[in-house]
Structures are given as structure tokens and as C-alpha cells.
Amino acid sequence: MQTDTYRHKGMRxxxxxxxxxxxxxxxxxxxxxxxxxxxxxxxxxxxEQAYQDKAFPIGEGQTISQPYTxxxxxxxxxLKPNDKVLEIGTGSGYQCTVLLQLTPNVYTxxxxxxxxxKARLYFRNHGLNPHTFHGDGSLGLPAYAPYxxxxxxxxxxxxxxxxxxxxxxxxxxxxxxxxxxxQRMLRITRVEENEFTKEEFGDFKFVPLLGRSGWSGGE
Length: 219
Ligand code: SAM
Prior knowledge:
alpha/beta; Rossmann fold; two-stranded antiparallel ribbon; binds S-adenosylmethionine
């Protein structure tokens, strides 16, 4: 049984203070980070690490993203209360749980079967209801498209065309794109049916996006 004590809440408040100092401004995003117990995604022995602003291994060679990155990507999405969001790379389920504080309409897809199963169990045990899928999210999730917002939480070699097609007009895609070492955070807005604008927001380091439109595309 996981508990969320005053100590944990205090550690989250300190983390939120750090994120504000690092430039996160969106109060709804900061509230979401303050609400979601990040230590629930860690083994008990790693409590201190849960509230450091760092990525951390979650098994299967993958990581739970750094809180700053989660907050930054969430802020770039400019979520409105009923937006339909697709997250690519469920991982631990932490980013998804943060998104669920901002809109109830979250679809999330994970490529790695054990991580998918673990995250699904987490959601069920915590009474959370995102739409969860196992599969190659580099192709998006066309069966449920279009989405108001799409967030990719793994580093892509290029912007997959399939994801652009699955945005509503006015929709936003947030995706880190680059090589294996470093990726540039992009925000792409579908301003008209056939017109997209691109903004760039600094360098990040993600695990690679796998799959057909990811790093395993040529295989
Ligand atoms: N959002 C996650 C969280 O909050 O814990 C962090 C995810 S981790 C940085 C990236 C995740 O993307 C990994 O779990 C990895 O298995 C997944 N992934 C990589 N390629 C994928 C693909 N083509 N489709 C879906 N998930 C993918």
C-alpha cells in the first residue's frame, strides 16, 4: 500500500519551487506536479530520488522523465480542460498521470510490453482511466484520431508524418527531434489543413523513439 505523507507533499512543494525557478510558469502544470505523488513510480528505497529533478531508470532500459522535462512538455502543449491528448511512450505512467490532472481525455501508447502492463496496473490500482495501448506509437494511434494535442516522450530522428496527419486543425504536436545524443524540443502547430508552423525550444536528452517512424524504421 503506497502512502502520501506530509513529508512527501513537502518534497513535492520543494520540487515545484525548483521548477518555477527554472522557468515553468503555467500554474495548472505546477499544480499537477504538486498533486501527483512521483514516489509511487519508484521502489521504496529510492524515495529521495523521486523528488530530485532527474530522470531515473524504470527497467527495460527506459527512464521516467525528469520532472522539469515533464513540466516543460506539458506547458508547451497549452492544454485546455477537455482536450483529447495522445501521449507516445507511456513508460512509468507518470507523465500520463500529470496530463490526467489537466484533461480527462488521455490516450497513451507504449511499445515495451512489460512497461505497458506495469503502467496499466498502476492506472487501475489508482482509479485512473486513460485509454492505454500497446504498440508502435511512432505511427500515432490512427484508430482514435484526430487529437488536439500529441506529446512524444522519446527522441525521434524526424517528425513522423503520421503524427501530423492525426492532429486537429489548431492542434499541437510536442516532440524532441535529433540524433541519439541530443534532441531539440519542437512544437508544431497545425494552423490550417495543410499548413504547419514549427517552434524550437532548446536541447534535451531522451531515450530513442523506436518503431517504424522511429530509430528502427530502416530494419
Ligand atoms: N512518459 C514516460 C514517463 O512518464 O515515465 C517517460 C517515457 S521514457 C523517457 C520513453 C518511453 O517511450 C519508453 O517507455 C519507451 O519504451 C517508449 N517508446 C519508445 N519508442 C516507442 C514507440 N515507437 N511507441 C511507443 N512507445 C515508445
